[in-house]
UniProtKB/TrEMBL annotation:
<feature type="transmembrane region" description="Helical">
    <location>
        <begin position="257"/>
        <end position="275"/>
    </location>
</feature>
<keyword id="KW-0472">Membrane</keyword>
<feature type="transmembrane region" description="Helical">
    <location>
        <begin position="295"/>
        <end position="317"/>
    </location>
</feature>
<dbReference type="InterPro" id="IPR036259">
    <property type="entry name" value="MFS_trans_sf"/>
</dbReference>
<dbReference type="InterPro" id="IPR011701">
    <property type="entry name" value="MFS"/>
</dbReference>
<feature type="compositionally biased region" description="Basic and acidic residues">
    <location>
        <begin position="446"/>
        <end position="455"/>
    </location>
</feature>
<feature type="transmembrane region" description="Helical">
    <location>
        <begin position="205"/>
        <end position="222"/>
    </location>
</feature>
<keyword id="KW-1003">Cell membrane</keyword>
<feature type="transmembrane region" description="Helical">
    <location>
        <begin position="20"/>
        <end position="39"/>
    </location>
</feature>
<keyword id="KW-0813">Transport</keyword>
<feature type="transmembrane region" description="Helical">
    <location>
        <begin position="165"/>
        <end position="185"/>
    </location>
</feature>
<dbReference type="InterPro" id="IPR020846">
    <property type="entry name" value="MFS_dom"/>
</dbReference>
<feature type="transmembrane region" description="Helical">
    <location>
        <begin position="420"/>
        <end position="441"/>
    </location>
</feature>
<keyword id="KW-0812">Transmembrane</keyword>
<feature type="transmembrane region" description="Helical">
    <location>
        <begin position="93"/>
        <end position="111"/>
    </location>
</feature>
<feature type="domain" description="Major facilitator superfamily (MFS) profile">
    <location>
        <begin position="20"/>
        <end position="446"/>
    </location>
</feature>
<feature type="transmembrane region" description="Helical">
    <location>
        <begin position="393"/>
        <end position="414"/>
    </location>
</feature>
Amino acid sequence: MPAPASAPAPQTPVNPRSRVLVASLMGTTIEFYDFYIYATAAVLVFPKLFFPSSDPTTALLSSFAVFGAAMVARPVGAVFFGHLGDRLGRKKTLVVSLLTMGIATFLIGVLPTYAQAGWVATALLVLMRLAQGFALGGEWSGAALVATENAPLGKRALWGTFPQLGAPLGFIIGNGLFLVIGALLPSESGADPTQPSEAFASWGWRIPFLFSAVMVAIGLWVRSRLVESTVFTRTREAGKVRKLPLATVVQGHWKQLVLGTFIMLATYVLFYLMTTFSLSYGRAAKDADVPGLGYGYTTFVLMMIFGVLFFAVFTLVSGPLADRYGRRATLVWITAAIVVFGLIWVPLIGMGTLGVVLWLVLGFTLMGMTFGPMGALLPELFPTSVRYTGSGISYNVSSILGAAVAPFIAVALWEAGDGSPWLVGVYLSAMAVLTLAALLLSKETKDVSLDEREPAPAGEDAARTAPAASSSAS
């Protein structure tokens, strides 16, 4: 872990504040938008369009399995883009990751369905989903580094919340667009309100995927105007760029990798339970084989969007709290609250619509409070030369442990509970206990310097140029 900062000299920012915040926010908004529209389609239409089965639960689980496959691709993307980001710089890498995500999302919008191309269509969907995960594996850490490495003293956690804010904004834009499309398309008389209309299932679902091309074009323009951060530039000028960042971070910073992974675990589980699983549970009919809440799609998504507004607000609120009281102290209390929240799911939901709304509001509020500080905490665990790789691996390996399996496990526990989600809540609480343990074993990072000049580990001399090594030694 980087050493505590003694008295860092003030720096003149190379990027204006507005440019940094907009670039970090807009990029993650687009990336999460792309990710969310797949998650929504995975619940609404993909089980029937790409995974035909006589058993609706089997089709849904198959769709979720592909959803989770992207999480497996994310650590691969973290290694690839982390290598580029720690070797070539943050700006170029962020442009490549955003472009990759945009192309994959657009292509999903033009894929044939199973009825048109058989299992070839399913295979292409899996391929595009893997590409989405691969791209997102490099997006988050780069956006977090753009924000935190350009942040003024004492406001690093606040600035780090802006890339995190992309998650609720992407959700609102993506699901809001689905709602608008569903409202504009004709619906059949007497149709089941929990199911999409025939027009939506036929072609309307493609529009959000195709629209991503417009958002990506805007994001690329914003990011092309960034200048590389002073922190990375100094590291490169000092000859401390690593030849193999992955090897360096695994050999010299493996404890931070493990702690960072488990610190993110509860966040990921909560995140995907409150978005993907809750949409399935909220829309399932009360008299279904696995009963749910029985809300219509439009009604429940509006309730979710209301909850996500709290996600956005409390993401920003968490930044100043983490700057004042520390990342570790703030997250310990929030994670303890998540443990309690998982144990009170059934009493809340049993209160009727008011209780369901309260369940969504509390869940998304805790989501904002736990997700916000991660934008600063994970980058602070690693030195500049391996920060992109280290923070990206921790963030994305946690996605496998938390997000890739969360919807799948949740559906299984939902069935095991005879339609009651109490076991799903217990699962969330158990994962939060693991995160709490990781936080208690970690150290506070609030006062570490991101511009440290640590000596290179043994064997890293080959990664430096001779002039830079000589300059550094002098």
